[in-house]
Amino acid sequence: MKPLRYFPALAVIALLIGLLPWPSTIWASAPQTELDRWQVMLIGAAEKPGTAPPAGGNWQEAHAGETLVELPPGAKGVWIRLQLPSTESWLRPGILASKTYGLNINIYRDGKLLYETTRDYQVEMTRLLLPVDSSNEENTLDVLILTNGERAGFLTPVQLGEFNDLEKSYMRSELPSLLLGVSIIFLALLMSVCSIFLSKHQRSFWISLCIIALTTGVLIASYSPLPYLYYPSGGRFFSALFELALFTMFPALGYFVSETFERKSPRFHRFTRWQAYYSLFGILLFLAYSLTGDKLYPIYSIVSVLAIGVLMLVQMVWISVLSISYWRRGDSQARVLAFGLLAFALPSATDLILYYANNKSYVLFLWKLGFVAFVLSLVIILARRISNDYKTLLSYSKQLELFNLSLERTEKLKIISDLAASVAHEVRNPLQVTRGFLQLLSKKDDQQNQGYITIAVNELDRAAEIITDFLTFAKPELESVSRLDIRELLEQLDLIMGPHASMHGGRLVVVSEEGMEVMGSASKLKQALINLIKNSVEAFGEEGLIELSARAEGSEAVLRIKDNGEGMDEEQLSKLGVPYFSTKSKGTGLGTMVTMRIIEVMNGSIIFQSQKGKGTEVTIRFPLVDQLASSTVKLPH
Fold first, then answer.
1. CA-wise closest residue to 323 among 264, 266, 366
2. At a CB cut-off of 8 Å and minimum separation 6, what does 325 contact?
3. Bridge pairing between strands 544-553 and 506-512
4. What is the pLDDT of residues 553-581, one digit of tens each?
5. Which of 153, 465, 617, 624 lies 20 to 30 Å from 441, alpha-carbon distance?
């Protein structure tokens, strides 16, 4: 399953590769011939072209490096003379000029019309795909291209090959961009539906992102020649969508960037607002241009091509600078977003620079790759946020489970505490009286009953210990609270419990740092630690070892009791502190309960860790005296 982790990255790489402007010859399944030279003749504004170029015209040599698509003032089109070599090596030969500028295109051979296409909307980029006759001789084609724009002609070399292969190769090279645009539009619509679940503050930011995605998808889809070629009747509609998306996207992008960077650049925020006013003016001018025909086209072309291009270039450069600055001082999530914006802004700025540097004959494509990188950064942020939310939810559920267990334990302890307080005093007095009379009887010379009396006294003492534990658990208040030196207390404990461990075939090792003081009762803390050490001694095997250490960690004194005894499994470990649960045959479980209660009233915490056959480690934490002095926690009296 591990290779599947790399599938999203591979899919993105494949998409980026598909969006690159690969030559159409890459997709061809049969050999093709590339025609990279042709002749160009300009057509003046007053000329009326016929079915053939005028004799003795001013022809200019053009080639793939210098296509001569830019028209000088006063020209309305061009004649292109194309020399075709022999085409007999193909069953159905054809020619393909994948990047062609022009509105009306006619193709003639010997004055005979072979191909004709017209457009009544201002989208100059098209393609020329034409089947030609199979012949063993060279042929000359005259291509008439008319336009009212600034460009006309072949932007790329003409491909000669099998007609079906040329058509398929063109579709394969252009289809990824169209599919990308449609996919982004669909994603934007889904995002807009999701906005109803957001708060009012979040919704404006989210809607700006929806607008960016929607307009970018429309720009990518309507920038592709395919919709105009296969749905020519909707050409005006696609063209209008492109223009409106162009004027809408960049104010939305500016608002999104300004809000993302928390308006830390007031100048950029003002620039975005001014750009919004300019876009509104551009939209109104576009509506006027659409209603009045081509009369306003010269003015509109300046507004929609030149001026807005400069504004977009300034915006992209500015976003790049802000992204770099934000990346340096942001957290990991902010850096991912800043990288995504930078990956979108830099290629877009590069595209615009190359577009104007090549006299507007450059085909923009880097900005598509940049937007894919931007979307990828948003997906990464969303995935990380979902992961963090899942971890938070999992942590919350665990905390809730621990809280419920603690609440259940507290309820049980409350019941036992109430029961112990009411029963212990009533039972203790009769036991003491019985013990006293048994001691009097033991003084009589009755050897036959002496053993029974001794057993009875020992059992009474054991019952008294249990009742004492009951009282300690029921009323764990500390009679006297003082500063306790941990090292001094552990040294006393070593003197008391060291021999006890030796008697059971083990040893007790005590290590402690100096200068650690906590607030509490020395007798109660000794009782709690003795209970834990006794448990470790009773779990001894061969060569038993108990390590008791104390050290300061931050503002806490940490005591650790570690043994190499038989240990406990997870089920036994989870039941520690439960009334009447014990791993010993004659144990009551009250000793561990009393220990936990003593540590609790001293504002401490206790954690048990154990593995079956490997021993048990108990970690106890108490706040140091300095920490208590600055805290509002009060010790019970």
1. 264
2. none
3. parallel
4. 888 999 999 988 888 888 777 777 665 55
5. 465
